[in-house]
Amino acid sequence: MPNLRLYICIWTLVWKPLPCTDRVASNSEAQTLPYSSTVLGGNMVMTFVFSLLLLLVGPAICGGTFSDLFQPYWAPQNVAVDDDADQTKLSLDASSGCGFESKKKYLFGLASMQIKLVEGDSAGTVTAFYMSSDGPNHDELDFEFLGNVSGEPYLVQTNVYVNGTGNREQRHTLWFDPTQDFHTYSLFWNRRCVLFLVDGIPIRAFVSKEVSGIPYPRSQPMGVRASVWNADDWATQGGRVKTDWSHAPFVSTFRSFQIDACDLLEDGSGTEVVTRCTESGQFWWDKPEFDGLDRHRNRQLRRVQRKHLVYDYCRDKLRFSDQLPRECVA
Prior knowledge:
This protein has a single domain, classed as Jelly Rolls. The chain is about 20% helix and about 35% strand. The protein contains six helices and 16 strands. The strands form two sheets. Strands 2, 3, 4, 5, 6, 7, 8, 9, 10, 11, 12, 13, 14 and 16 form a 14-stranded antiparallel beta sheet that branches. Strands 1-15 form a two-stranded antiparallel ribbon. Strand 10 and strand 11 (about 195-200) form a beta hairpin.
């Protein structure tokens, strides 16, 4: 696996980790901005390197067509697969949304795909890219793209479920129009940190605080999934703007699927996969180099939070009756 060795070698040279941080901007700092590139600023080397590394490791380790990696799990008639063009389209109409899921489940690693979101009036719709285990006490890591009326920006909602409990939402605007071109959305997950990345730029870090008795998703293998569905009871302006079905079908397009993660063997039990996937140092994401973010990426995270964060559950004292979740104060 020469590409993987090169990948780790390059990363070791450029990645100077700091402790993962989930520090966010205050409400007074957060701004709702139209699509703007000013959030990036500064040195773009680390963003380029991250993208380069994904390209290096992807084709050798985890790249594949939709049919190699995924299968429809909901309304297959609305899932249009074109492996030759490396594109899959999910359509929402008045009768149904739809979705696809990975053929395997994974415990720790990196999953990413490029997405071009619903154009025009997408109010009431949600396009989701996420990882999830099964059952009522499931773990889940969410990207949810909340549609809006024409000319208004999408909101990106991220959420983390642990043992069936979510309510850990953050919402951001983006610094580009996600309906005009494909952009890469990635979930990085190891025993210490979950990172939500957009074009290689971290927009959120969810840090393990298990030493303080706070649950963290570390034992349930998760599938990689995507879906498009109607959520006009809450998705756009708190549900005040409903889906206009005269604009249906609402189509989001997916391509460039990459999964580099520890997979659940077909004949393996849950106990076996947890042991295999958590053995210290066996996988690249367990290396000390991945204990946190380098200084540049920490600055990027803070800049995104300052300029594009519009909601953070850790600041919502009214919602939690002044009893914020423990991870917000630990």
